[in-house]
Amino acid sequence: MRIISGLYKGRRITAPKKLPVRPTTDMAKEALFNIINNQYYFDAISVLDLFSGTGNISYEFASRGTEDITAVDENYGCIKFINDTAEAFEMTISTIKSDVFKFLEKSKQKHSIIFADPPYNFELAAFSKIPELVFKNELLEEEGVLIVEHSKHTDLSQLEHYSHSKSYGGNMFSFFTK
């Protein structure tokens, strides 16, 4: 994986093979950030990266100037890799080792963007729990957005607060707003 744009543009990041991850493809990530770039100033937002895995999305935000980034994953190896990479690149990424659903139930901090990249094999009930908890606990700022990455074979359009989806190859991004 590589960083697409910003201060660390072109830098390659190689995650250990033993991590249980499926990083967002460069093509899908570039398309997603083109959308976000037209709506937000990266240096003025707060980002919550759920199911953060390798930290791929967090690094992209940090490279573009975002300083308020929290990455949440339940896998110790993923959290350690994110911490080590963030330290090497001098990025301000806070990490939390936690089950994402338990974290969302307890969290009170609001964010401009919440990005969730859960396992593609989640059941619809597990996918639906993400926006349910985000909106119930009011974790988005006024003009904030929840973006959920999933397979093109998963349809989240019937979930509450759904706005629209964008498809890139086998990847889909579903957007949820207030």
Write the layout of secondary structure elements.
Elements: H1 26-37, E1 46-50, H2 56-63, E2 68-73, H3 76-89, E3 93-97, H4 100-106, E4 111-116, H5 124-136, E5 140-151, E6 162-168, E7 171-176
Parallel strand pairs: 1-2, 1-4, 2-3, 4-5
Antiparallel strand pairs: 5-7, 6-7
Verbal overview:
Helix content is 30%, strand content 26%. It is built from 5 helices and 7 strands. It has a single domain, classed as 3-Layer(aba) Sandwich (Rossmann fold). The N and C termini lie far apart (32 Å). It is of the alpha/beta class and 178 residues long. Helix 3 links the parallel strand 2 and strand 3. It is globular. The model has no long low-confidence stretch (mean pLDDT 95). It has a 7-stranded mixed beta sheet with strand order 3-2-1-4-5-7-6, with helices on both faces. This is 16S rRNA (Guanine(966)-N(2))-methyltransferase RsmD. Keywords: Methyltransferase, Transferase.
General form: globular
Strand count: 7
| Structural Rg | 15 Å
Q: Under the CATH scheme, which architecture would be assigned? A: 3-Layer(aba) Sandwich
Key descriptive features of the protein:
178 residues; alpha/beta; Rossmann fold; 7-stranded mixed β-sheet; 26% strand; DNA_methylase_N6_adenine_CS; 16S rRNA (Guanine(966)-N(2))-methyltransferase RsmD; RNA_MeTrfase_RsmD; SAM-dependent_MTases_sf; methyltransferase
How do you describe this structure in short?
Helix content is 30%, strand content 26%. The protein is built from five helices and seven strands; from the N terminus they run αβαβαβαβαβββ.
